[in-house]
Amino acid sequence: MSDTFPRQYARTQRLTLGEPRSFTVSPDGTRVVFARSSSGVDNVNALWVLDTATQTERLVLDPRALGNNLDALTPEEQRRRERAREGAGGIVSYACDSDVRQAVTILGGYVVLVDLITGAITTPDLAPGVFDVRLSPDGTQLSYVRGKSLCIATLDDTERILATDTSDTVSWGSAEFIAAEEMGRFRGYWWSPDSAHIAACRVDVAPVQIWYIADPAHPHLAATEHRYPQAGTSNATVTLHVIDTQTMALRDVHFSEQYEYLTHVGWNTSGLIAQTQTRDQQRVDIYSIDPHSGHTHLVHTDTDPSWVELVPGLPQLLPDGRLLTAPDRHDVRCLCIDNTPVTPPHLQVRSVVSVDDVIVCIANDIATPWIHDVYCIDVPTGEITPLTQGNGVVSATGSASCLVLRESTLDTERASFMVRHNTRDIALTSLAETPLVSPNVHITTVGPRNIPVAIVTPRDGRSGPLPVLFDPYGGPHAQRVVASRAAYLSSQWFADQGFVVVIADNVGTPGKGSTWERGVHNDLAAPVLADQIEVLDALPDLEPRADISRVGIRGWSFGGYLAALAVIRRSDRFHAAVAGAPVTDWRLYDTHYTERYLGHPDDNPAAYAATSLLSDVSQLSQPLLLVHGLADDNVVAAHTLQLSSVLLAAGKTHEVLPLSGVTHMTPQEEVAENLLLHQLAFLQRHLA
């Protein structure tokens, strides 16, 4: 069989296999540790070390060589990978000591320790079934979660339980569902820099309602219990504690203000801090914590009438003890030191990479949100310097003295990886495959509010008129219009089948400033759809080949919601839709995400009614294909099934494609490949 893009896209996990990833840089910059598989079709990552002096890459841990069953994952590890949208295997996470001389990981349920200098590998004699293993900063102890208990062990295998509970609903040292799914907090415990204490979360899920995820294709299997905090219902109770690793004395941490969410814990040589958030998300508080007593001191509060945004990498303490935050001020998200802005008003800060005497962050000019660059801020002088040139999308790991850069542009076939050590640039090898499509993309803006739009057209230059396919995400926290070829691979494949593909980042998407992001407050439907319509109205002038009498739309997750919303409410403009894993009624989605935008359903029922698809089905007059993984524990299949029932009751013809055993991801190769082909056939059939 000849190779095709859908087959390549599926077997390479969207062209990501074979790329270096998960970087850790040693403090002296002599070593860069990373994971990478052996080819663009190998989904088992090995552990590598780059020696920056010799510029050589060295394999230090090959999972296959150990003989462990790499598919033997604990349920907790499976859930962690789902929350992180992790589809690869082998070494998908690891941790190092503070000097980055040792690394520890879990393979087949067993702890594996590797000396990054000598390459020596040891497997401590610990019973299997643990996850989230870490090294103490001084490298003398291991920490991990076994079941619902937080444990530590010396390197000679002596295990001690630091914290446990007799209740089945209580766990120690793990992130609850909401923290991992919506806050970007994937861990539940943190070592002190001197290795003497651990700050740990105690999570009680007793208040959270139980949902059941069944597998209809295998009726002999019992349904899985899933604690899901549906909008308007109770969240898990999360508290913070500090444990002395020698005496095992446990100190409770008491925060002075009422809070619903523990969003961040940070511990560096300047001290221990934690950030809490209220249920309405309009206030965050940051506390300094005395690890010996557990006493707290409120050091910072931020409020916003809509919501306070959580920024990756923040808050943090600078070496001199001052506090670094990124509040929304004057219509941008800016870096502030002790509440004084240090970034200019045209930059939107996206994340913080490292904090020292030089702060490294990722930001974009709000005029060109599709370009992301790395910036350095010199703390003593306040001088800000761009480290990259504004050609694409850049991410970074490390510090100002040794930085790992991943850059993807519209002009390069694959992402490049570079280690910038002092004044030298060292290329890292990527083994990812070259895509079988070559994106033909034009980025522009539409209307007086400059809606970012990418237009993807066939590579063969075929003449019009061509049917149009909108291919958005459209929701908060995710951009589709970015200056990176990798973002348009599947869109280009659809374009090459004879479509003009349009991607529009409507109001609410990140990068264009605070007002733009908050334009969906209390309404995730009307303003989002209005922007897509505005782009559709402008399309004939942007691409003369576009036949706007034949317009389809496809999307997944929020994009699936937007696709269904468009074809139901505006069947006059959208003539076919593929809605994958759509939220159809926001009352069925989780607390932290949904209530940020729509409020509590008891307090703001009108917002939920106005954004639900279930009440609009009478307007549907065009073909709609609903696709949903039956094992999805994020956007549960009930969303699609309830919408289908309401559509059927209203006499509205539609199609439903259930995916047995598939979660919110679609990592299975045969599913991913044939799902693209199925969507194409549906769109061609109805837009011919």
Automatic annotation (TrEMBL):
It holds the Pfam family Peptidase_S9. GO terms for molecular function: dipeptidyl-peptidase activity; serine-type peptidase activity. One of its GO terms (biological process) is proteolysis. Residues 491-687 form the Peptidase S9 prolyl oligopeptidase catalytic domain. Residues 111-401 form the Dipeptidylpeptidase IV N-terminal domain. This is Unannotated protein. The lineage of its organism: unclassified sequences, metagenomes, ecological metagenomes.
